[in-house]
Amino acid sequence: MDWEEVREYVNQYCALRDIQYAAYELYARKRGLTAKELFVLDIIWFAPDGCLQSDICERLSATKQTVSAIIKKFLKQGYVSLTESETDRRNKIVRFTKAGIEYTKGIIPPAAHAEIDAMSDLSGEDIAELVRLTTLFSNYMKEKFEAIQE
Predict the structure, then answer these.
(1) What region holds the HTH marR-type domain (predicted)?
(2) Distance of CA 127 to the CA centre of its chain
(3) N or C end of the chain, less CB within 10 A?
C-alpha cells in the first residue's frame, strides 16, 4: 500500500477514535465532569482496594499535576480518601469514600455497561480481531512516537 493510501486509512481511523472520545466527553460533560475526571473515576471504581496515584498517571498517560488536581477536587467533595502507601510513603492510595461510591455508582456502571453493550454487538471473532489489531497498532504508535522524541 502506498503512503497516500495509508494516510487515508489513518484519517479514517482518527475520525473513528475521535467519535469514541467524543462519546466519553459528552457523557462526562452531562455529569459535570471532564473526560479525564471520568476516566479517573473509572480507574478507582474498578480498583476496589484502591489504587496508587502513580498508576492512574501511567494508565492515562497524564502528568502527576493533572491527576493530583483531579484527586484534590474529589477529595474536597468528599468522594475520595488518600492514604500513604506502605511500600512508598511518597505515593498515595486513592479510595472512594461512602459518598464517593454513592456519587460514582450512577456514573461509572452505566458507562461500563454501554461499553460492554457496544462491544457485545460484535461477534466474538470481531471482538478478538479488534483487540488484536488495536493492540498491534497501539504498540507501533508508541514505538514510532518514542523514536521521534529522542
Answers:
(1) 1-142
(2) 19
(3) C
What is the C-alpha to C-alpha distance for residues 14 and 4, in angstroms, rounded to an integer? Answer: 15
Tell me the pLDDT tens digit for each residue of 89-132: 778 899 999 999 999 999 999 999 999 999 999 999 999 999 99
Contacts of 38 (CB under 8 A, 6+ apart): 24, 27, 28, 31, 107, 111
Q: Is the pLDDT of residue 83 over 70?
A: yes
Q: Note the pTM of the prediction, 2 decimals.
A: 0.91
Is residue 75 helix, strand or coil?
helix
Grouping H, G, I as helix, E, B as strand and the rest as coil, residue 94 is strand
What pLDDT, in 10s, does the model give residues 26-55? 999 999 999 999 999 999 999 989 999 999
Closest CA to 67 of 3, 58, 106, 33: 58
Query: 100: Cβ–Cβ under 8 A, 6 or more apart, which residues?
Result: 44, 74, 78, 79, 80
Maximum Cα–Cα distance across the chain = 56
